[in-house]
Amino acid sequence: MKALLLAGGLGTRLRPLTENLAKPMALVGNRPWLEHLIVHLKRQGIVDFVIAVKHYPEMIQQYFGDGQKWGVSIEYAVEKTLLGTAGAIKNAEKLLSDRFLVVNADIINQASLVPLLEFHLQHKGAVTIGLTEVEDPSQYGVVQQNYDGEIVRFVEKPDKHHAPSRRINAGIYVMDKEVLDWIPAEKEVSIERETFPLLIEKNVGVYGKLIDGYWMDMGTQQRYRQVHWDLLDRKFPLPLSQKEQGNGIWIGQETSIGQGVLFVPPVLVGDHVQIGERSVIGPYAVIGDRCQLGKNVRCTETIMWHDCKVRDGAQLKNCIFGYSLELGPRHILYEAVMNRMAKGGQA
Fold this sequence. Notes:
alpha/beta; Spore Coat Polysaccharide Biosynthesis Protein SpsA, Chain A; UDP N-Acetylglucosamine Acyltransferase, domain 1; 2 domains; seven-stranded mixed sheet; 6 helices; 30 strands; 31% strand; elongated; disordered C terminus
């Protein structure tokens, strides 16, 4: 079975981080999220991928190529114009198998696929939507189901106290190819607002199944931070290549740490990083590969992508730095979100 990864979103709410970057290529734990997702799905037996691309497609194509480096096969469906979630699936129709998996590639998840696939085969409908439960459903489209899991309607952004459930679309679907006959070609179509309600109306068989594992829509800067704090707290148990040096401190290869440096866990430091003497790193700091931090630097609640330079005495708190940014000596930044230019998520 093939997996279609929807990677064409603009990521407007994550700007400036996604100003020159495909949103699924944003770093999570010092690697592009899209890479983590492909590795996660491969562990569950998916080796044939189609990636739907629109925003900076060359970045994704150059990084992943044909997928051989990861032991998978990757093909690409390029959108010439924005087609929406359903339109992007329709655009990839020729590359898909008779039954296929669809994953919104900008949603962080560690869902197990087997229960979803088993349920799909059991109910014999055309679509199974992976669902997750949230505390406050008022910001989402909520599903209402009958006793056997069939979805009877979607309720868009209901009042918290009058919502039919707390279950929302998790952005993971198992679909039979016949569903694509209901999606018009070369037209912008939303699968959530248009296609699924149409399929329910036509009694095609749209079912929902709760997924397990971590789930987070990283669509805002606040949620992007939260993904990383959850990662450092291991609430989000993403595999890390760095070795844990102590309780909650991960240090990469060939990293130089000056005399008197204090790590306040949790902290993740990438490969080939230089940290000057008497610097204080953490709590909740993620430092990308090849970053250079001077002497007496203080870095807390901050995410720093690859190749950044922070000069002596600078202080950062609750900041997000994109690729290759430089901060001068004794500068103090609080809640700054900055980016210069993308480098394709290169390791």
